[in-house]
Amino acid sequence: LFCLTGISLPDPYEDFMYHHLQYYGYFKAQKGSLPNSATHQHVWKNNPRYLLSGSFGEREDVLPDPLQKEKLLKPCTPSILSADSLMLSSPLLKSRQLLNDEFGKVNPCLREPRDLFSFFSSGGPLQPPRWPVECEVIKENLHHIEWVPPQPEYFYQPTGNEKLPEIVGEEKGTVVYQLDSVPTEGSYFTSSRVGGKRGIIRELAVALQGPEDNTLLFESRFESGNLQKAIRVDTYEYELTLRTDLYTNKHTQWFYFRVQNTRKDATYRFTIVNLLKPKSLYTTGMKPLMYSQLDADTHNIGWRREGNEIRYYKNNTGDGQQPFYCLTWTIQFPHDQDTCFFAHFYPYTYTDLQCYLLSVASNPVQSQFCKLRTLCRSLAGNTVYLLTITNPSRTPQEAAAKKAVVLSARVHPGESNGSWIMKGFLDFILSNSPDAQLLRDIFVFKVVPMLNPDGVIVGNYRCSLAGRDLNRHYKTILKESFPCIWYTRNMIKRLLEEREVVLYCDFHGHSRKNNIFLYGCNSNDRKYWLHERVFPLMLSKNAPDKFSFHSCNFKVQKCKEGTGRVVMWRMGILNSYTMESTFGGSTLGNKRDTHFTTEDLKSLGYHVCDTLLDFCDPDRTKFMQCLAELKELLREEIHKKFNELGQDMDLEGSWSDISLSDIESSTSGSDSSLSDGLPVHLLNIAHEVNQKKMYKKRKKKPLQTRKQRNEQYQKNSLMRELKLIDDVPERAGFASTLQKQPTFFRNSENASSSTMRNENPRLNEVVLHGRDKGTSLDPPKMTSLIPTKSRERMQTEKPGFTVSCSPKRSTNPSQEPVPDMKPNWSRNRYPATKRGRATMTLYPSLHIYTYP
Known about the structure:
Blueprint: H1 12-23, H2 37-46, E1 50-53, E2 59-62, H3 66-72, H4 83-89, E3 98-100, E4 106-110, E5 130-132, E6 174-178, E7 192-194, E8 217-219, E9 229-234, E10 237-241, E11 256-260, E12 268-275, E13 289-292, H5 293-299, E14 304-305, E15 308-315, E16 324-331, E17 340-343, H6 350-362, H7 366-369, E18 370-377, E19 383-389, H8 396-401, E20 403-409, H9 417-429, H10 434-442, E21 443-448, H11 453-458, H12 483-498, E22 501-510, E23 516-519, H13 534-542, H14 564-570, E24 576-582, E25 585-586, E26 594-595, H15 598-615, H16 621-644, H17 680-697, H18 706-726, H19 732-738, H20 741-748, H21 755-758, E27 766-769, E28 782-785, H22 791-794, H23 832-835
Parallel strand pairs: 10-12, 20-21, 20-22, 22-24
Antiparallel strand pairs: 1-2, 3-4, 5-7, 6-9, 8-11, 9-10, 11-17, 12-16, 13-14, 13-17, 15-16, 18-19, 19-21, 23-24, 25-26, 27-28
Helix pairs in contact: 9-15, 13-15
């Protein structure tokens, strides 16, 4: 502190603050250069703007608060300068914690706490990816330009004369490229480092014997690369073996490798010999992707579909344990001595994502409503990024009223389609479009653009470095083994406690079906019957040449219980989806029989935003139109099922109670539908975590007082007396009657509880299961389809029973009673005692005893 009397006196507190600020780096001047009152006032009057370090290395203008300025600059009177005002005014002090308001004035509040992990800055390099220590990595940085072909790239049309090359192998061929010491099943991830394996990076490609040697030079030890081995079996023919996902012995689908030393006029043949899926889009005309470095440098041409004589067939030279499949194609390179790349789909690497996020963080406009945070670190220590996108709210009430949308991608690292859709979504939602601004005003977007960065970096197709498919472990309790999934689920759980989540969507790729479609979950709530199908139907209307509603599926299978879609649905998100985008192309509209480009996929990101506006429009006209159309589509599906069974039934009035699972087939296309379970080295850890949780839940039985023990004894005695009364011979007749009640209740469970059912005389053709329609939270009524010929056989006369299933649980004589069914026909899994929907009119009422 400074005493403003014209004489500078030493002060203990001043000396302490000087050393304190200098120690923490806020004050860089010498002690003698501290400003006195005159200098301080002169500075405020003549140069009121000072630069403080802002976020991402930028500088910001700071103006003093008027009230604070008035207190500090009282004319002709001595004043005391606090340490806070000194820090705000002095240009020699550095702080990144002070906030500025929109008028450039200093706020007396601090910035949000910094993240636990450091981010890249605009002036510094990107965080280099971390690799397992077993992986060799070349030092070259690869970059591919984005390019959209001027003409549609049509599917390959088979001629029937395609050659099926015989697999030769190492015995008759020459190995020209091979990775060594690749971790497979039986080993597990231990540690990682930037650059992967220590030591000198060996040259794996063969050495050329001279300028006339036309052997291709292969390489895949770069980010997202995947090629295990290359064998030269003829002058221009090569057999390729893909590397399995690290720490596994399967999941070979994604490939991405480089070839050099090309010849222009020759026809080369490549054959991948160890694919695992029996079906593939390559059988329906899909082509591989090729990238020419010379074309990119000279003509600005990027990835394009190339290849002829494409065949996908079974490899008959397997070891008998699991069958392999082959993909073969021919190619002519455009230039001599070119560097070319081949890929299963357009690559999108972890470095590509970091470059994009860096551009967002460095944008002064976008960084105002897009906050970049660290969700967690992956197993290898790579950052899993979380973006929160929303416009600043004017009031706390406005902020609390916003609903949330959660989007994620690349849980399967080889499905780069998801990243391109995510990029299109981010491009639009971060733009200055009026629709984007409206979406940011009414929603809070939580975006995880790359859930499995480790798998993306090493070139896996499906797994993380734990050797497991993360999209089967969303229910995991192992935070350290599956951090990306655990923290994502926990983030969404906390978000649900704060606000409603309108939509959850995880972006994937599909290897067996064309077009783009969604997998959802049938709603259990009768109030929201078919509502989960409205968003996909709207999306199909907004993107009719790309999105196929008829390929969507909403069945929840037991083997998919661990997927993000099902877990989030069970957590309470009604509209929970997996978006599947094909590796191939479209069979719809104007894009029929053409491959998808990156621009097509990015446009889907825009259509998601457009559909979200339609879905949440306060004017419910579009929503109700789609709902009516969905009901008509369901009616057609039901009639189709009856026709397949050879039945002709009129379901008017009761068709809406048909079980949706009965008319839908299971989802297909996933090669890991069944979870592999935990790796061996994680089984004990999971058991220990479960034991700890059970121990915490287990509570000791509290000790009872003498009074409590006496009361318990009296209750037990009363119950024994009542049991003896129930066993007397006078009640033998009534007891025999009670034995029939479970059968009756089982029959009554098949009766409909909906008003629609009671008003329709033809409802005896369909037997309904479920609860009252009047209860909005009850699960949907389940039905079983009964052939007309068996109707009379199913019905039986049973005197003495009158069943009423109205929502008010009262017997209405004006309504037509529902005929009973045979006792042994219904097999409802809900016990009769829990339902309580039937009333008896003939038998005496049961006496229910209550105890104190």
